[in-house]
Amino acid sequence: MAPQVREWFAQQRFGHEPNVAHFDFDLDGTPDWALEIVVSGRQLTVMLLARGTAFEFRLLANDPPDPFTYLLVNRRGDREFNFETLKWFRHPHDTLQLMYFDRPPLLFEWSNGRIEKRLVPNDEETDSR
User: Fold this and answer.
1) Which helix (H) or strand (E) holds 95?
2) Is residue 129 part of a domain?
3) C-beta pairs of 106-113 under 8 Å, 24+ apart in sequence
4) H-run or E-run covering 4
5) 3-state class of 37 per DSSP?
6) Dist CA 93 CA 25 (whole Å)
7) Which secondary-structure segment (H or E) carries 63?
């Protein structure tokens, strides 16, 4: 993890580490884990969904290692700008974003009993003319 990312996290006082998040992702009342780990030369983003005394493993992303990627948790009610609709919105429940340095982030959310993934355009990828 790049020191600049860690410093930014400390300044912003996020409630988690840049590569580890603990929150109720699947809305079942039990906290789950999201991790960014490097294994065999790949940077994996995984979700560990709490299932009683065990965890269900889900691979979210498999990327080349990059010290400038990190995880952001959007808490229910957090305000964010949608660069496609050009409007502010509030997150209806906790979601996870995988933030990249050189491309748009990926958003993961729990919907209809499964993990949904979508690209989150930012102001650089949106033509608002």
Assistant:
1) strand 95-99
2) no
3) 106/60, 106/61, 107/74, 108/25, 108/34, 108/47, 108/60, 110/25, 110/26, 110/27
4) helix 3-12
5) strand
6) 8
7) strand 54-63
* Residue type (1 letter), 59: L
Quick check: is 124 in a domain? Answer: no
Residue in this structure with the two tokens 């269900």, named with its chain if needed: 56
**Residue 95's beta-bridge partner residues?**
74
The total domain count for the chain is 1
Question: How does pLDDT run across 66-97, given as a tens digit for each residue?
Answer: 999 999 999 889 998 887 788 898 988 899 99
Tokens linked to 113? 């009993």
Residue 83, domain extent? 3-119
Which one, of 28, 9, 25, 29, lies nearest residue 17 by Cα? Answer: 9
Tell me, yes or no, whether 128 lies in a domain. Answer: no
Residue 126 in any domain: the answer is: no
pTM for the full predicted model: 0.86
